[in-house]
Amino acid sequence: HVADAYRTDLMTITRFVLNEQSKHPESRGDFTILLSHIVLGCKFVCSAVNKAGLAKLIGLAGETNVQGEEQKKLDVLSNEVFVKALVSSGRTCILVSEEDEEATFVEPSKRGKYCVVFDPLDGSSNIDCGVSIGTIFGIYMIKDEGEPTIEDVLQPGKNMVAAGYCMYGSSCTLVLSAGRGVNGFTLDPSLGEFILTHPDIKIPNKGKIYSVNEGNAKNWDSPTAKYVEKCKFPKDGSSPKSLRYIGSMVADVHRTLLYGGIFLYPADKKSPNGKLRVLYEVFPMSFLMEQAGGQAFTGKQRALDLVPKKIHERSPIFLGSYDDVEDIKALYAAEE
Ligand code: P6P
């Protein structure tokens, strides 16, 4: 009976990645080891996010530790956990975190061949109201074996070897691509293992949902304004799209990936480069969308072709179902 077989044949994320690795006989397992440390970080953050929410809400002793120190802000704590896990993996050489102004260059004795860019806890302002938040990460190989420089992380997103996010919501879901499709894993807390629950995710070619902060409408440029107008008042007799906007990128992107539709964080007069960060928000989510059959556009070009000049650079982003992104690309092309 399939269900029985499934229950006993547990496909954990580690086993899944080892299977993938076996397709690269030359691989020495470095990626598997790196990923296992990222997974450890996600498990820790999942537990801390759940506890912190409760501690904060009912003032448990946990809110200040036994030394009476004010509990670290969760995003600072999450950042420390990921930096320590990534350095201790011995597989990384440069880390870029949303929380750290400067890149971290790993000491030579612990250096590996990967650069990891990450937002340890994106959307953390939503914790107090229980809205899902997440960790977003992208992985590059260093350009060459020489002394690592910041140029090793200022690579276009298309050079990423892997990207993913972990969403801390009603369940803890890790979505990952290593360049051969997208797979989703859900944490089984009783096992402490991420189990394959969403094999080979493909985003629908067209969706019924658009996701944007309408509160910025007065500052939008014309192609974005025209596109959103088209979503609300379609001229071709089709039904209007629904608006879903959670305000936490991981949650909005996860829904878009599974249900289809389009997520937009456009440029506006206040922020000409939009709000979302290229390296550890735009690139990983664009990588996943392309791997799932969707696409990602900056208003000027394919998002993954962008070459960042600064590690915390921002970019407008339109990502999701292939046909929906095509529609907004046509409106930007018409304005050129
Ligand atoms: P706004 C959260 O603060 C975040 O960085 C993303 O997770 C989210 O998509 C975006 O900002 C929301 O921004 O301006 O709509 O509140």
Automatic annotation (TrEMBL):
CDD domains hit by this protein: FBPase (cd00354)
GO BP annotations, alphabetical order: fructose 1,6-bisphosphate metabolic process; fructose 6-phosphate metabolic process; fructose metabolic process; gluconeogenesis; photosynthesis; sucrose biosynthetic process
GO molecular-function terms, A-Z: fructose 1,6-bisphosphate 1-phosphatase activity; metal ion binding
Superkingdom: Eukaryota
Hydrolase among keywords: yes
Cofactor(s), names only, from the UniProt record: Mg(2+)
Record domain Fructose-1-6-bisphosphatase class I N-terminal: where: 11-199
Catalytic activity: beta-D-fructose 1,6-bisphosphate + H2O = beta-D-fructose 6-phosphate + phosphate
Enzymatic class: hydrolase
Predominant location category: cytoplasm
Ranges where the Fructose-1-6-bisphosphatase class 1 C-terminal domain occurs: 203-332
UniProt-listed Gene3D superfamilies: 3.40.190.80, Fructose-1,6-Bisphosphatase, subunit A, domain 1
Pfam families per the UniProt record, alphabetical: FBPase (PF00316), FBPase_C (PF18913)
GO cellular component: cytosol
EC number from the UniProt entry: 3.1.3.11
Keyword list, A-Z: Carbohydrate metabolism, Cytoplasm, Hydrolase, Magnesium, Metal-binding
Subcellular location: Cytoplasm
Family: Belongs to the FBPase class 1 family.
The protein's name in its UniProt record: Fructose-1,6-bisphosphatase, cytosolic
Organism expressing this protein natively: Fraxinus pennsylvanica
